[in-house]
């Protein structure tokens, strides 16, 4: 059998290219989203948990930040599931919300520095994982 025939038969079984990066990105988006949901719930229900004494971070109070993180995290979890199912729109949306989360955590550095730096690093890794795979690839 020629290599062309074997190649055609292989493509018939796997019409889409899979990417481990996209599987990783979908999982990481859900993890970062879950972290952000936790941040939001803590900010809503336990103002004393964070280190800022004035109950303000830049321009928002903890209640506003709590809702921001809760909504952003929930969206990131849904986007992560959509990345795993191979939705192309989810890759672009995942990048957008990872950027928003990273910027938000820069503003949140005063309240919880170590957690914010860790989450910013995860967001940067997520952006790479979403932009590195080829255009037609899907998560495994």
UniProtKB/TrEMBL annotation:
It comes from the Bacteria. Residues 21-133 form the DUF7144 domain. Keywords: Membrane, Transmembrane, Transmembrane helix. The chain crosses the membrane at residues 21-45, 57-81, 88-108, 114-131. This is DUF7144 domain-containing protein. It comes from Actinomadura litoris.
